[in-house]
Specification:
2 domains; globular; Arc Repressor Mutant, subunit A; two-stranded parallel sheet; alpha+beta; 5 strands; 178 residues
Length: 178
């Protein structure tokens, strides 16, 4: 596995890959860890050495450019990024694929995703659990999933709900304030 980190207008992001698949992605941390690689490495794996972004394969550099552009306010589509689907369960994959279908600037509820997967409303919680373990936040836009009442809930990425809200504002989503 290989890893690189890179600066964006939101802060320092990280991406890891193996072969031609993205294995993990991390958004900027509010409290940076000593090494960003630990954020995207599988905890069961040894520490992944960081390589210079300029030395990353061209396809990784293209993703980096798209992430930088997106976080600078120019909406990008990450649905064609090749993800390491074998690293997640079939249920997680189904949830993430439904999430990939949410266009920038739009939101769906956990229940909407469960319904799109032909599951009952009781599956909303399972959808939320799957999204909380998303190894590719932003690339799989879990920030676009909100509560049934349109409230900002449950974002496990760095910065929590604040980051989720920032990403939605950046994409032009309509947000309600109380």
């Amino acid at each position: 596995m290989s890893f690189t980190s890179f600066d964006t207008s939101f802060g320092r992001c990280g991406i890891s890959w193996e072969g031609d698949e993205v294995t993990a992605f991390c958004l900027p941390s509010v409290h940076p860890t000593p090494t960003a690689a630990s954020s995207v490495s599988n905890s069961d794996s040894p520490q992944v050495p960081e390589i210079d972004c300029a030395a990353a394969p061209d396809w990784v550099q293209a993703i980096v450019r798209s992430v930088r552009s997106h976080l600078a306010g120019h909406t990008e589509d990450f649905s064609r990024v090749t993800l390491a689907w074998h690293r997640v369960s079939s249920f997680q994959r189904a949830v993430y694929q439904q999430t990939l279908a949410i266009p920038p600037g739009f939101k769906r509820s956990y229940g909407d995703l469960a319904k799109a997967m032909a599951l009952g409303p009781e599956a909303s919680r399972a959808v939320g659990v799957a999204l909380s373990t998303n190894p590719w936040p932003l690339l799989v836009p879990c920030h676009r999933v909100v509560s049934a009442s349109d409230k900002m809930t449950g974002f496990s990425g760095p910065g929590g709900i604040r980051t989720k809200t920032r990403l939605l504002v950046l994409e032009g989503a309509e947000l309600l304030s109380e």
